[in-house]
Design a protein that fits this description.
This protein is α+β, with helices and mostly antiparallel strands. It is built from eight helices and eleven strands. The longest helix is centred in the N-terminal third of the chain and has 19 residues. Keywords: Signal.
């Protein structure tokens, strides 16, 4: 009886361990509408359907917090390969004033099959660790003072904080926290703010040379169908305005 109970306990522990190391296969196989997915407990303030990105923004007198979230592996591959540029216009005029370039682009882009294999290597806990280890450097740009600074998540005194997570049914969650005085140094009353998204790099000839033969064939077929190649490798560029909360 003791041996039998010991065996049952061992099997239970083994099953629990296997469940905890389940890879992200479900993200690749799911055909559901990602807009209906539960991105987080807070409802998104804006949803961009082309790249399936939800946006949330919260603010007080001290900080402005921006969240970008997606459950799309295709969008995540675009971010890995060509980076993510978050532009902010404190005056709400959709102009490139302040930017956070993070994550920075990969040196060698992933093909579809390579990125799928890459994701499937990780459990959720392992993927969280991968995001922390892989993406540390980021760039801050302030066109008002013609400044560009390369910094890191390891720099504790950095005022603008960035963080990546994969939790609560969210494949990829990006959070940036910016002190209000960084965007509004003259303590002007913050009313409306513009947020813009695009890839840091563009898909050039060097990028296409790293594509698989299957992807090159598909690219050529697309060119024949529509007369011009519809770029599927870069994030779609867009802007959206938000009215900031008053304390």
């Amino acid at each position: 009886m003791i041996k039998r109970n010991t065996l049952l306990i061992f099997i239970a522990i083994l099953l629990q361990a296997c469940a905890g190391s389940k890879p992200f296969t479900a993200y690749w196989n799911a055909k559901t509408n990602t807009q209906a997915n539960k991105f987080s407990e807070k409802e998104a303030l804006y949803y961009q359907p082309a790249d399936q990105i939800s946006v949330k923004i919260f603010n007080n007198n001290e900080f402005i917090d921006i969240f970008l979230e997606t459950n799309s592996p295709g969008t995540l591959k675009k971010i890995y390969n060509l980076g993510l540029s978050l532009w902010i216009d404190p005056d709400g005029k959709s102009k490139r004033v302040f930017a956070i370039n993070y994550p920075l682009p990969a040196e060698i882009p992933y093909t579809d099959s390579q990125f799928k294999s890459y994701l499937e290597r990780f459990s959720r806990v392992e993927f969280q660790e991968e995001l922390i280890d892989r993406f540390q450097n980021y760039e801050l740009i302030d066109t008002r003072i013609n400044e560009s600074v390369l910094t890191s998540t390891t720099v504790k005194e950095e005022k603008v904080k960035v963080q990546l997570k994969t939790v609560n049914q969210i494949l990829f969650s990006y959070h940036v926290q910016i002190p209000t005085k960084v965007l509004y140094p003259d303590y002007a009353e913050a009313k409306e703010i513009s947020i813009g998204i695009n890839s840091i790099n563009v898909a050039d000839k060097q990028y296409y040379s790293a594509m698989s033969s299957k992807e090159v064939i598909q690219k050529n077929l697309d060119e024949l169908r529509v007369g011009a190649y519809q770029n599927k490798h870069e994030l779609e560029e867009w802007w959206v305005n938000f009215t900031l909360a008053k304390e």
